Amino acid sequence: MKKVLLDFDIGTEIDDAIALAYLLANPECELVGITTSCGEAQKRCEMASMLCKMAGKDVPIHSGCERPLLIEQMETTAPQARALGGWPHDTDYPPNTAVPFMQRVIRENPGEIILIATAPMTNLGVLFAMDPEIPSLLGGLYLLCGSPTHHRYDTVTETLSAMERDDFIRVLASQGILENNSIIDPHATHIVYGARTKDFKNFGNNVSSRVVMTPAEAEANFTHPIMQVVMSIAREWFKDEPRVSFHDAVTAVCIFNDDVCTYKRGYMDCVLDSALLGGMTIFREDPEGPHQVAWDIDEEKFFEHLFEVFGQKRIKL
Questions:
Q1: Contact 180, 173 (CB under 8 A)
Q2: Predicted structure pTM score
Q3: Going from the N-terminus, what domains does the chain have, and what CATH number goes with each?
Q4: Could you read off the pLDDT of 72-126 as tens digits, one per residue?
Q5: Residues with Cβ within 8 Å of residue 231, at least 6 apart in sequence
């Protein structure tokens, strides 16, 4: 059993909900907490609550930072929150409780917590700056962040209604040169990459964009009760993008399965001194480096492990 703390931005894309459903259904996962960030962080807590209630799990959920450290927020709303009306959920989520909660649960469980961050890095940046010892107390840090090879393999239009971005940045993101979680708060991203912790794994667009489904395939596969909640969120997402990408879910599945990705070791960091390229990640391979960067992915193994926790096999159309 692994103790997992999830920091994410459910409500912007669909992969966050898939990752949470996987963690809730996984018998090897003890989900000790959920934290949210970006615009409408409290609505994002309500969305997390929908899935927890369907799973019958009482997981602490905390609302985090809505604004980046130094720049304006690009991810301003949670458009998939339109699905909230269809499912029971809690609503009493005070603002700005995520960082102290994260600090407390990590300090109360030294060396045991695997922190998975699949959102912009603001909550982690604040936590690591406020309490620099925290990274050394983690049992692992798994990030969905950046693009070490500056490639993206899924076809996207990047018309996300939650995003307020320059057209040039939008194009670079659609090509995989920039990645949302790293660019939305580049200064926090830099802080997180500067942290030193054991089992520091990074998952970028170069692997996460290679596993996709069509809406029809999602309808055929998302049949488990928890995934029915995910499907209701997905139908809102399809109004922006007619595809399912599994970015966050790749990161979650790799916590429990070593046969999904292969890695290169080195150093990840990001550009800070550019208005257009701020947050663009740079990877330098070094066998002594602190970061294990996912370099290749076995798509079949990913889907096998994702659906096995729901007692299913993937249906291909």
A1: yes
A2: 0.95
A3: 2-308 (3.90.245.10)
A4: 999 999 999 999 998 999 999 999 999 999 999 999 999 999 999 999 999 999 9
A5: 218, 219, 222
